[in-house]
Amino acid sequence: MSGLALDDAAWASAWRPRAVGDKLLLTLGLVLCALVLPVWPGSLLVGLTAVALALGPARVPGRVFARAVRLPLAFVVIGALTAVVQVSGAGIGWAPGAAGTGGALVGHALAGGAAVMLLATTTPVSDLLPALRRARVPAAVVEVASVTYRLLFVLLDSLRTIREAQAARLGHTSVRRGLRSSGLLAAAVLTRSWDRARRLQEGLAGRGMTTDLRVLPEVLPSSRSFVVATVVGLGALSALTLVLA
Q: Residue 2 has what pLDDT?
C-alpha cells in the first residue's frame, strides 16, 4: 500500500461504488444505536455488526481494519482510566461503581468507533467532501478538511523520503543513532511540509484562487434495497437488544 492505508482500503472496498448517503445512513444509525442502547448487549451487537459488514460484504482487509481500530482503542482505554480512578486525601483509588462506569464507557466508545471505521474504510475522502457540501456543512469546515487531507500526503511523502535517506546513511544502526535520526527526521519533516504548504498557498493565490477548490464529483446512485435493508437491520438490532436486556 502507498499513502494512507485507510484511503487505499476505501478505494479498494466493494462498497466504494455505493452512494455516500447510503453509507452515512448506516453509519449514523449504528453510532446512534451504540449511544442510546444498553451497553449489554447493545454495544456488543453494534460492534459485531460493524466488523462483520466491513470484513464481509465490504471486503475490507482484516489487518487494515484492526490497525485502524488500534489507536482509537488506546484513547478509549486512557479515557476509561480517568473516569474510574479518583484522587482524594486518602490517595489514589477506584471511583464508586468503577467497573460499571468503565465498562459502559469502553463498550459505547468501541461500538461507535467500529461504526465510524466502517465508513472510513469504505468511503474515500474525495467522495465524502462533496457529500458534506451537499449536506450544507459550512464551506470553511469542508475546506479545512480538504486542505488537511491533501497535506497529509505531503507529510507522508517527506517522511518516506527522509527516512530512506537516513537508512541509506546507516542512521538507525544503534539506539543512539536511532534517537538522533528520529529527532532530525521530525524537525526536517515539519520544516519541509511547512515550506511545501506555503508554496502551495502562494501558487493558488497567484492564480487568483480566492474560493474553495471545486472538483466534479462522481455521481453514485442510491440503492433503495440497501436503504431498506439498513432501516430494517437497525430496527431488528434495536429490538433484539431490548429483548435481551
A: 45
Do residues 165 and 189 make contact, with C-beta atoms less than 8 angstroms apart? Answer: no
Question: What pLDDT, in 10s, does the model give residues 134-176?
Answer: 888 887 788 778 878 877 777 887 788 888 888 888 877 788 8
Judged against a pLDDT cut of 50, whether residue 94 lies above it is answered with: yes
Asked if residue 26 has pLDDT above 90, the reply is yes
Q: Which long-range contacts (CB under 8 A, 24 or more apart) does 30-35 make?
A: 30/111, 30/112, 30/114, 30/115, 30/118, 30/234, 31/112, 31/115, 31/116, 33/111, 33/234, 33/237, 33/238, 33/241, 34/108, 34/111, 34/112, 34/115, 35/108, 35/112
Q: Which three cell numbers stand for residue 150?
A: 491533501
Residue 130 near residue 142, CB atoms below 8 Å: no
Give CA–CA dist 115/4, Å, rounded: 19
Say what the pTM is: 0.78
Listing DSSP states for the chain in one string gives --S-HHHHHHHHSTTTTS-HHHHHHHHHHHHHHHHHS-IIIIIHHHHHHHHHHHHTTT---HHHHHHHHHHHHHHHHHHHHHHHEEEETTEEEEPTTHHHHHHHHHHHHHHHHHHHHHHHTTS-HHHHHHHHHHTT--HHHHHHHHHHHHHHHHHHHHHHHHHHHHHHTTTTSSHHHHHHHHHHHHHHHHHHHHHHHHHHHHHHHHTT--S-----PPP----HHHHHHHHHHHHHHHHHHHHH-
- Where are the chain's structural domains? 5-123+219-244, 136-206
